[in-house]
Amino acid sequence: MHRGKGMKFVGDSRVPAVRKPNIPKDYSEYPGKTEAFWPNFLLKEWMVGAVFLIGFLCLTVAHEPPLERIADPTDTAYIPLPDWYFLFLYQLLKYSYASGPYTIIGALVIPGLGFGALMLAPFLDRGPERRPSKRPVATGLMLLGVAATFYLTWESVDQTDWELKKQQGAIVAEAEIDKESEGYLLYQEKGCIGCHGENLEGGPAGKALVDNGLDVDQIKDIAVNGINTMPAGMFEGSDEELQALAEFISGVTSK
């Protein structure tokens, strides 16, 4: 009688016949072509990410954030400006077919196509080649996107009046102002408040007068003869009124 005769063996596919240890595959036959995802590739990614993160943290410690003054909803002349990494989208909305009645195209359609293409890139380009020269479509679209981003950012920076922007967003120290004084009443009556603000904090057309560092004679000379964008002849009144106004402005200091 033969061994095992008349017996049936039932196998279970859930139980592997040969147990293999959980170790990376041997890629020695393909040097420089590929490597194990864990831990080789992932460790490199973590190291690069750590270097950039530490560098970014050092920058945040070394440079204070360029904060602006508290938002004023009544200041209709204020021109908002996004951070540098969104300037290209900000510039895009200035063009004819991406603004006005076509805002939806500039705000959603074009950015949606660009970022959607990035997300779908692994599915749209599934070729095995890794050299950019062997993937002309993907390489061309990426270069086009990078060039457009750089160009729009440059245009936005070039077209922005940075002096005006700095003046609009400057944090001005608060000052204790006696609004019942003769000097402040003259400040209102002569129209200074329209350019320099109710609390001498400045505005789109005039600089802040708090802690201006000017003496009385300098202020009188500017009020009569003007300076920079302020034209001459803005003050109309007697010498006594000019003296009182200049003394008031010269004495306005922050708390």
From TrEMBL:
It is found in: Membrane. It is a multi-pass membrane protein. The chain crosses the membrane at residues 46-63, 102-124, 136-154. Heme c binds at residues 192, 195-196. Residues 178-253 form the Cytochrome c domain. GO terms for cellular component: membrane. One of its GO terms (molecular function) is electron transfer activity. Keywords: Electron transport, Heme, Iron, Membrane, Metal-binding, Transmembrane, Transmembrane helix, Transport. Residues 27-154 form the Cytochrome b/b6 C-terminal region profile domain. It holds the Pfam family Cytochrom_B_C. InterPro entries: Cyt_b/b6_C, Cyt_b/b6_C_sf, Cyt_c-like_dom, Cyt_c-like_dom_sf, Cytb/b6-like_sf, Cytochrome_c550/c551-like, MenaQ_cyt_c_Rdtase_cyt_b/c-su. Belongs to the cytochrome b family. The main subunits of the menaquinol:cytochrome c complex are a Rieske-type iron-sulfur protein (QcrA), a cytochrome b (QcrB) and a cytochrome c (QcrC). Component of the menaquinol:cytochrome c reductase complex. This is Menaquinol:cytochrome c reductase cytochrome c subunit. It comes from Litchfieldia salsa.
